[in-house]
Amino acid sequence: MATSCFSNVDEYGFERPHNFNYETYEEFMSEYLKVLAKRARKWAEIIGEGRSLERSITIKRYVRKGIPGEHRGLVWLSVSGGEELRHNFHNLYQQLLIGPHDSHVSDIIKTDLPRTFPDNIFFNNTDRHQRQLFNILLAFAHHNRQVGYCQGLNYIAGLLLLVTKSEETAFWLLKVLIERILPEYYTPTMKGLITDIDVLAELVKIKMPDVYQHVTNMGLPWAVITTKWFICLFAEVLPTETTLRIWDCLFYEGNKIVFRVALTLIKRNKENLLACQDFTELAECFKDITKDSIVLQCHDFMQSIFKLPGSLPSSTILKLRTKVEQSHKDQLNPRAGR
Amino acid sequence: MIDVTMANRGTAQRPNGTQGKICQFKLVLLGESAVGKSSLVLRFVKGQFHEYQESTIGAAFLTQTVCLDETTVKFEIWDTAGQERYHSLAPMYYRGAQAAIVVYDITNQDTFMRATTWVKELQRQASPSIVIALAGNKADLGNKRVVEFEEAQAYAEENGLLFMETSAKTAMNVNDIFLAIAKKLPKNEQAGNASTSGQGRRLVESEGQKPATGNCCK
Ligand SMILES: Nc1nc2c(ncn2[C@@H]2O[C@H](COP(=O)(O)OP(=O)(O)OP(=O)(O)O)[C@@H](O)[C@H]2O)c(=O)[nH]1
Ligand SMILES: [Mg+2]
């Protein structure tokens, strides 16, 4: 490990896991750096020439191949419609910071500040990141009172801040994610989350019936495995660069991407999952599959999410959501359906 | 991370070859955010403490084994998220649990109130034979105490709960509370196997545990 040219902290300040395989990573990076250089050139052409970042076939293809770190904030804002919002309400963020603020909400957020990425060198070494994170979460909680503050948003806002290095940009991106891209994951009832957990289970049932049956037989509820996947959008779950590559697509293509990633994770590890003999082993295996070298190789992984799970039309997801919501209603009120 | 370690806590480990029983139990931790649920688990399972412990999203799963006389008790530990809105997911975690630790922070009165509502919910909705322990955590912060020991103890007695004040920071009473639970759990043939009784539909669970399909104690 001492001989590695990579430090034990990644470029966003996250400590690498103690069992991190530097050798495999160096091999991967020697290839990936070439990809990055090429992508950087391509994006520099578009951005340097002031060409439009509006949604188009080209931009979509570029996004799927990865946005260079320094352009992420800008591109995410453009392709998601956040830029337009920011333009139309340009004073909003500053006004939200002025207040007045609900002290209960601000106390809850404060409790979570030192508990957000405590191992990240930016969050644990300077007050600045914690203060900026506080501002983003406080502003958002007062802006969207239905959501307020939901644990998990701290990780999303925190990563947005690390990437964009701008409080205000992070605020607008958070708003777009919560209000436009994702269903109701973070509201007090978490209705959208509970629905989508079951939608994913239905998709597994359709696409990998043997895995579905096995997980059911072992008695492991899907929520146990996937709540954090949905809530944190893979932050704190997958390696940082992989998460950001996923977010590239998420901002452009919408929440369908979350299902693609989840299905890919499960499908790539199908044999391992099926080999688990009991509940404990299976729960452990579901954690391991988010840490192996497959997910570290973000470029291959991102290519595979568009191939491996097969076709996934939005209409299928919408239909499944309706079906799942109906069955939740019937469960609450079993007589109504008769 | 999931760690499966044989603990040599409790009584000394039996030499190989004796025909002791192995029991597996599902245990869930409940309580307000930031009271120290994850910290208690981390102390019990790995013997560590982090000044800044990440907030738990959804739930975390760990296992730990303790030895009690003739029996090896393996805990499947479910550490849940404390924020109120994650409440709707909680039944999934306490369903089929044979034990629960309801945690509050002795320096925060609201967290004690919240603990009492968790106890009520468990008494109503969880398996009728569930063993419930109440943990008054952060006992090292005695100078900031607002929940009196006697108050919590009286409440625990009224409700038939095990009760200890704990500190994940100093390790005070952490192993002890898990051991006390292990002692109180039934270790006969009917004791549920955590994995099998943990499944099934929520709505029928209240009829009590089905006899385990596989024996937990061999
Ligand atoms: N002084 C002191 N601090 C503690 C103790 N236990 C936990 N803490 C601190 O309290 C904070 C919250 O602890 P956690 O273990 O994350 O609390 P939790 O109940 O798991 O919180 P959620 O995951 O949000 O539900 C952390 O910063 C811990 O370091 C303790 O016994 N003494
Ligand atoms: Mg926790």
TrEMBL record, chain A:
Pfam assignment, any one: RabGAP-TBC
Gene3D superfamilies for this protein: putative rabgap domain of human tbc1 domain family member 14 like domains, Ypt/Rab-GAP domain of gyp1p, domain 1, Ypt/Rab-GAP domain of gyp1p, domain 3
Residues in Rab-GAP TBC domain copies: 66-254
InterPro entries: Rab-GAP-TBC_dom, Rab-GAP_TBC_sf, Rab_GAP_TBC_domain
Keywords: GTPase activation
Listed GO MF terms: GTPase activator activity; small GTPase binding
PANTHER family hit by this protein: GROWTH HORMONE-REGULATED TBC PROTEIN 1, RAB GTPASE-ACTIVATING PROTEIN 1-LIKE
Entry function: May act as a GTPase-activating protein for Rab family protein(s).
UniProt protein name: Growth hormone-regulated TBC protein 1
TrEMBL record, chain B:
GO molecular-function terms, A-Z: G protein activity; GTP binding
UniProt-listed InterPro entries: P-loop_NTPase, Small_GTP-bd, Small_GTPase
Entry EC no(s): 3.6.5.2
Gene Ontology terms: biological process: protein transport
Primary residence: other
Name of the top EC class for this enzyme: hydrolase
Subcellular location: Early endosome
Catalytic reactions on record: GTP + H2O = GDP + phosphate + H(+)
A Pfam family matched in the record: Ras
PROSITE patterns per record: RAB, RAS, RHO
One of the record's GO cellular component terms: early endosome
Positions of the UniProt region annotated as Disordered: 189-218
Keywords tagged on the record: Endosome, GTP-binding, Hydrolase, Lipoprotein, Nucleotide-binding, Prenylation, Protein transport, Transport
Compositional bias segments (type: Polar residues): 190-199
Family: Belongs to the small GTPase superfamily. Rab family.
This protein's name: small monomeric GTPase
